[in-house]
Specification:
By secondary structure, the chain is an alpha+beta fold. 29% of the residues lie in helices and 31% in strands. It has one domain: Alpha-Beta Plaits (2-Layer Sandwich).
Length: 84
């Protein structure tokens, strides 16, 4: 996922980690140099869809302008969700 708008400085990465733990999602989130948040996530299909729905909303102070989801072939298995 790649999310733009007011997504840095509003706790977005911590929000992603909280929701990932809640829905048993594995992967990572990080800020990009151009002011976006990037997320790589994997998990059960139903939980992953719910997680994506939450990412479209974001934390209270976030303002989402664009939201892009891309399917990628997993190159490694994650065992937790981390903030980079």
């Amino acid at each position: 996922m790649l999310i733009s708008g007011r997504v840095q400085g509003v706790g977005f990465r911590y929000f992603t980690q909280y929701k990932a733990n809640e829905y048993q999602i594995f992967g990572w989130s990080r800020n990009t140099p151009d002011g976006k948040v990037e997320i790589e996530a994997s998990g059960d299909t139903e939980n992953l869809e719910t997680f994506i729905d939450w990412m479209k909303i974001g934390p209270t102070r976030a303002v989402i302008k664009t939201f892009t989801v891309s399917d990628i072939f997993p190159t490694r298995l994650f065992t937790n969700f981390t903030i980079r």
